[in-house]
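Q: Now give one record:
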Amino acid sequence: MAFKRLTDLDVSGLRVFIRADLNVPLDDARAITDDTRVRAALPGIRYALEKGAAVMLASHLGRPVEGEFRPEDSLFPVAARLSELLGRKLPLIRDWVDGNFELAPGKAVLLENTRCNVGEKKSDDTLSRKLAALCDVWVMDAFGTAHRAEATTYGMGRYVKIACAGPCVASELDALTRALASPARPMLAIVGGAKVSTKLEVLDRLADKVDALVVGGGIANTFLLAAGHPIGKSLAEPGLVGQAKALMKKVSIPLPVDVVCAEEFSPTAKATVKAIDEVGDADRILDIGPESSRALAETVVGAKTLIWNGPVGVFEMPPFANGTKALTSAIAASGAFTLAGGGDTVSAINAFGITDKIGYISTAGGAFLEFLEGRRLPAVEILESRFEN
């Protein structure tokens, strides 16, 4: 995979437009509750500023209505946090599409919510050309939106003088390529989640690449059903039993031999460990049991490449967190290159304190899954195209 990188360019005196992913969670008082994405944008911003570029920083926030700007859609909280982290005032520009603002080399501004601009989400060609005219260099540094063909994530990349990847996107693509294109063997994938239907393409794609595929959460229940085991009232998709059986013929998919059950979905529910064939009609499977956890740990320790997307149980509830906790401990102790992604996965990594033990953590959701599915991401396509031409 070939593309230009911001860190390979001399941007001194150039107008640099950085499309970052600053779509942070906010509380009712519009205070940022997790600034991970803001911090992730800092290397690209700092590099451009240190090289003497005039930096325009842009992002979407939430789901505003195009053409309508409301106070709750403003990037003001982000501007305030970035100002703190950068140690300099970062002006927030409201009406910026026509370039009615001044910006000197070595300075930076934050452009207001991109999705308030009419034509952004459909990558309107007129808007894309107008935005491209604002800068000399377009930096795509928002992997979380790389699967969206929007004006700032794709369209303007077609017309700007130079198109390149920022540090976030470059490191993400490097990690994904390492894990998928030339993995060290054995290669293991762990895919959890509520429904097989949301991960079916990922599972099918990975089944052709990995040496073993571990399924967790509600997904595992459908596979248990396909294998003829009782699952009681557990979340499952009986209509996908056929696909589950087909996947089990393609690749080794070890299933739990014991599980943690409860008769209600609640953090105060009575948790009971049962052998898989002892699950009752009123039971809900909410975690893997201790024997299954030990077997999973042994599988993880033997892997050289590990892709992880999704916990193996309802780890947010203490009675059903042990399976995911055991998994994180095994990953921390393994020597495998681990690529982890997805919101729940990142939450589990943070909850069990193994951030520094993961080879690469992707904060992207949809883009991460679509890449694993083998889909071509619009932002990546334009970066490769501009490199070739």
User: Anything to note?
Assistant: The mean pLDDT is 95. Residues 221 and 236 are 5 Å apart (CA to CA). The two ends are 14 Å apart (CA to CA). The longest helix spans residues 36-50.
